[in-house]
Fold each of these.
Amino acid sequence: IDKMSMVGLTLLAKLNRIISTAKHVNPQVPFGSVHIIFFGDYLQYRSVYDAPLHTDFSLPSKKKPGKLLTEKEIQQRVARSLILQINCVVKLIQQMRTEDSWYLQLLERLRHGQCNYDDYELLLTRVVGQPSVGSLCDSPWNKAPTLVFRNEVRTQLNNKAAIRNAAQLGDVPMVCVAQDTCNGKPIEDPILIKKLLELSDSKTQHLPG
């Protein structure tokens, strides 16, 4: 199975049940006694609407004490136990796709969240198919759309772009806090107000705050 980071615990549990059923073996035997090889980096992508494979169920839960687990939560724990039974791990340490040593070092720092300003400058020079482009800060490349895979990253980029554009124009950025209402009446509950203000703009029809 390739791109394992996109496989969540729920999906892995379903796969385990399907293989066990197809092989007509004891469901307690992992994957129906079929040898399974996983490829990928668990942190490369996030599973869609599912708990990631590295979820730690030993941490304190937000659920109320004494509340029973749902069938989905039970299956996720089963899948997590399957992951913990992996008895052979092969780590590939030689990079075969990238020959540029500077870019390779950048990728290694990026993986550990240790990028520096020189890495940023290097990324500005890497435009696929356009070797003549010196920097993404030059026109018209500085107006090109930026593609990201998370709404939180998009929001952060938009905020930084707004601050940068305001500085270039000599203006002061303004933050307009939403005045939420319920049935035409202002919401006064401080806890509810805090929750609403913390919502991502992807859940508020792209309205900030």
Amino acid sequence: MYDKFPTTKVSSDSSKVYKDLSIFKDESLVIVETFPGVSDDVLESFKSLGFNKVINTIDLFISEEEMNKWLKPILTKDRVRGRKFFGEIIDFMDEDKIEEAKKDIVNSNKVLVYGFGASLLSDEGVLVFVVVPRWEIQMRYRKGMPNFNASNYDEDNLKKIKRGYFFEWPMGNKLKKKVFKKMD
């Protein structure tokens, strides 16, 4: 019989996932690339492995105000319609901060690099990719999650989805393709 609504039972017990992270505890460099919309709970679980240096890529990006200026022609005034962004994530990162982070990676022992764009900082170490389905991202927007590098917690959900659809998700997909080429 065909099941029109198949389901897979997934344990809500996150302790198994956290236990499995222990395979990274002896690594000197762990790079956790994330798709925009991944919860920072993931970062907290990796931090528990005792890294000496943690680099969160959100600190490497230009300010929210500066990013919004760049995005104005892409997102338009319309509530739903916009223009697809064809640039790269690196366009929104501060070059000086990137260079400083790269030096920290080379000069530190036991480093965790976490966040959207983390894989751009080094080709060394263990690369982990964390993604969340777009539907889940949309559900999180409805619950008040802001867009990437934005403090639009209470903004209209359609505007949040528009920013995701025309800006964040295309950039995330481009980066995902590059990351998958690097993976074993």
Amino acid sequence: MISLFRSSVAMLLVTLVTGCASLRVQTDYDPATDFSALRTYAWLERPRPTTGNPAIDDNSLLVARIHDAVDRALAARGYRR
């Protein structure tokens, strides 16, 4: 019984620690580009890259949500689609 309790506490601690871990975000852009002159944008229509995971690759709802989030963020900065 004690080993089950210890295992449960250990799993709980591992879950809490990994749940608090931050995501690593990377960005890439050309620092020489003058973005202040830009006011419009468009989505490039081309095949999306595949990850090999059908839950991600074939998920049109996920793609729509990403597009909507980016559209809202750019609109908040004054960009037009």
Amino acid sequence: MIKVLLVDDDLVDRMAVLRGFSRAGLDAEIQVASDGAAALEILRSDDASLRMEHPFLVLLDLNMPGMGGLAFLEEVRKDPTLRRTIIFVLTTSDSDEDRLAAYEHLVAGYVLKSKAGRNFEGLLAMLQAYWSVVILPNKSDGV
């Protein structure tokens, strides 16, 4: 089962992602956060029913009110228990500065929502293949 933390403030975009996973028939456990601060609460929670357990992937929007995606990336990469988190950016921002900043924070990929929307099934297939082929760090690896 693929585990995903979806971090996006846009309800329509969140629903589209959830619908896409469902339509693709992917066995997925998806938690949703509306901004970076809410995502960090989930990732750092002492409540086992709320916290995401490794391994998991993050789908992260950049442009959000409150704590945006780049601030979230900075916090995650500074945190010794979260720094190895696998994060894919899924955003409307086609800014070279945003893309460079995201990759400087070691994201696994940068996907424009406009391109993903036209081939969302391809994006989901890529995530499923990534999840099933790549050996991800887990809690026993000191994550």
